[in-house]
Write a structure and sequence with these properties.
The complex is a heterodimer of chains A (about 400) and B (about 220).
Chain A (H helix, E strand, L loop, with lengths): L3 E9 L6 H9 L6 E3 L9 E3 L4 H9 L9 H17 L8 E6 L10 H4 L9 H11 L7 E3 L5 H14 L5 E8 L3 H9 L23 E8 L11 E3 L3 E4 L12 H13 L1 H4 L6 E3 L6 H13 L6 E3 L2 H4 L6 H15 L1 E2 L15 E2 L4 E2 L4 E8 L3 E9 L3
Chain B lengths: L5 E10 L2 E4 L2 E5 L6 H11 L12 H15 L12 E7 L4 H12 L8 H4 L6 H10 L5 E5 L5 H13 L5 E10 L2 E11 L10 E2 L2 H9 L1
Parallel strand pairs in B: 4-5, 4-6
Antiparallel strand pairs in B: 1-2, 1-7, 1-8, 2-3, 6-7
Helix pairs in contact in B: 1-2, 2-5
Classes of the chains: A alpha/beta (about 400), B alpha+beta (about 220).
Chain lengths: ~400, ~220
């Protein structure tokens, strides 16, 4: 069976337009989350990580005509373009596939203000994927995965499976989501949002921040890459369902526990008897998610593994979250550095976790990436360093 | 790698005011008209007795009923562990039907915070969550979006999940609803040799799927 490598990547967020800018901001402890004072869009205020529209349009104008594309499309296209350029692959090849991960796509097109600018088919997620693959002259029918907040992690898992099966030699996995009144009002109705920068796993956490982002990984069966900092090996990953509640995490963490067990077992030879060197948790900073995750991680015997959540840097980027967090974890592995879980001060879960409280150099070889979402779904993925 | 011979144990389709089980019509109600009323009549006819049904959005009701009828008619289902059963589903319109309702609700400034139980249905995979809760399914959960059922991808993908040992049973298919139009086609896929309870099973391969999906 061929191996699968991440040979290039991109993150677009309020912290920057490529992975380097985003990682630099995280090293410095910056956050993209701030108070948004746009009472027309968000009548009750919002503390979130939103892209600057003017900057986005300026960047995009080098690629195509900004008014002809939706906000979502611009972010996804820019992200894929940068990752593809860095990888050196030819995206038009028949052995290359595009996968799009998103929860809501161009959901702004549902608003009256945008309806006249775009055909209503732009609301369809498959249309967004077609626009993406056509932009790069790819001949294959692209895939779309829309599985709530595990979409990004699941899309990488899927890409690896398709390379494993020998269907494709390269897979471009792109994930994006935007924040509109639609999304904000929904999370506010759940009373899930924090009015300040979120505090994953902390005793005083009071909810999540939503965020806009796009992320892309180029997966390849060949580790050779044009990117200067090498490749990361992608292990097997799995998804599950709690079969418990559509909007509340399982108290026992059953579904997440199951995917952790499966990914540790399936990648046992790569873990070589050791625990993951760190865990990139979903860590949304809601009371219930973080409690559930701590329970599942403890049940799996991983209480001593260093854990971080990136949510206090980017907010919760929904369908893109698993992608950008996997990319940040891949860069942790490349740079041999554990990144601080911002916002954490004091243990806030029944079961203890070894939260990374300060960014530090450390020898690391493996990462376990977790995600959970509405509908009771969970996903787990393993990443490993690759010696060229 | 082991190549498992897979079969379609049973199929259930709900569309055009009719329910089909293994391509035979088993219930029709032309009078109900709109999808919401028709689905309610299906719920009653099949004595579903699951009060949570009434809280679901229409997409979830559609997928839930098709899954429920299919599983109740597939005794083999109960022989699988929750962890070994996967759900691989797809549609075209995602949750757009509920999204449009939700958008109408929040347009009204007095209703900026609609009920959270409406918002959660603005995701297409919630129908899988509802089915998993009712039938205690805990394995692979993937929801794909494509303009039409992308069988050239889905069939080999499901085959791979079996061949790599990730699943032993898959609830597979299409659940799409927007406005007045609705179509659910769900199939229960298992390894061959498990079909002692059903008279005849169809081999799970693309050309047979195309026949099921063409009707």
């Amino acid at each position: 069976m061929p191996e699968t490598f991440i040979i290039a990547d991109n993150i677009i967020s309020p912290l920057g337009f490529d992975t380097r800018e985003n990682m630099q901001a995280i090293h410095q402890g910056d956050t993209g989350i701030k108070q948004i004072n746009d009472r027309d869009q968000f009548p009750n205020g919002l503390c979130a990580a939103l892209m600057d529209t003017t900057v986005l349009n300026n960047r995009f104008s080098a690629m195509a005509d900004p008014p002809a594309f939706t906000r979502f499309e611009k972010m996804a296209l820019l992200s894929a373009d940068d990752a593809i350029n860095q990888s050196g692959i030819d995206p038009a090849r028949r052995d290359t596939l595009f996968i799009l991960a998103t929860t809501k796509g161009s959901i702004d097109v549902i608003e009256d203000a945008h309806k006249n600018r775009f055909d209503k088919d732009r609301l369809y997620l498959w249309k967004a994927a077609e626009i993406l693959s056509k932009q790069f002259n790819n001949p294959n029918k692209p895939l779309v995965i829309s599985n709530a907040c595990i979409s990004g992690v699941l899309a990488i898992i899927l890409g690896k499976r398709l390379i494993d099966a020998g269907h494709y030699a390269q897979v471009v996995v792109c994930g994006a989501d935007i924040i509109t009144r639609f999304v904000a009002s929904g999370f506010q109705s759940f009373q899930a949002l924090s009015d300040e920068v979120c505090r994953p796993f902390d005793k005083d956490r009071k909810g999540l921040n939503i965020g806009e982002a796009a992320g892309t990984v180029v997966l390849s069966s060949n580790p050779d890459t044009a990117a200067a900092d090498g490749s990361i090996l992608v292990g097997r990953g799995f998804s599950s369902n709690d079969a418990n509640h559509i909007s509340a995490p399982s108290r026992t963490g059953e579904g997440l526990f199951q995917v952790i067990e499966k990914t540790l077992q399936a990648n046992a030879s790569l873990y070589a008897g050791s625990l993951p060197d760190f865990i990139s948790a979903h860590g949304t900073a809601t009371l219930y998610n973080d409690e559930m995750e701590a329970t599942a991680i403890n049940r799996a015997g991983l209480a001593s593994a260093p854990v971080n959540s990136f949510k206090a840097y980017w907010g919760h980027a929904l369908g893109a979250a698993g992608l950008i967090e996997s990319i940040a974890s891949a860069h942790s592995l490349k740079n041999q550095i554990l990144l601080q879980s911002a916002g954490f001060h004091e243990k806030g879960t029944t079961h203890p976790l070894n939260i990374i409280q300060q960014t530090r150099k450390q020898q690391i070889k493996s990462c376990l990436k977790l995600a959970s979402g509405f509908g009771g779904c969970n996903a787990g993925l393993s990443l490993f360093t690759h010696e060229a | 790698m082991k190549h498992n011979k897979l079969v379609i144990q049973n199929s259930c389709r709900i569309a055009k005011s009719t329910v089909w089980l293994n391509q035979q019509p088993v219930f029709t109600n032309e009078e109900a008209g709109k999808p919401g009323l028709f689905l309610k009549s299906v719920y009653k006819h099949f004595e579903t007795a699951y009060p949570k049904f009434f809280k679901m959005d229409k997409l979830s009701k559609l997928g839930f009923l098709a899954a429920d009828i299919l599983i109740k008619n597939s005794p083999v289902f109960s022989s699988y562990k929750p962890n070994d059963i996967g759900l691989i589903m797809a549609n075209s319109a995602s949750s757009l039907d509920t999204d449009l309702n939700y958008q109408e609700t929040i347009k009204d400034p007095d209703n900026y915070f609609p009920s959270p139980s409406l918002f959660v249905y603005t995701l297409p995979n919630i129908v899988m969550g509802e089915i998993c809760i009712k039938h205690h399914i805990q394995g692979e959960n993937n929801f794909f979006i494509s303009s039409q059922a992308h069988l050239d991808f889905l069939q080999p993908y499901v085959q791979q999940l079996f061949d790599e040992g990730m699943v032993k049973c898959v609830l597979f298919g299409w659940v799409d609803l927007l406005g007045e139009a609705y179509d659910a086609r769900l199939l229960l896929i298992t390894e061959a040799g498990m079909n002692r309870h059903t008279a005849e099973s169809i081999i799970f391969e693309t050309k047979n799927l195309e026949a099921v999906f063409a009707s």
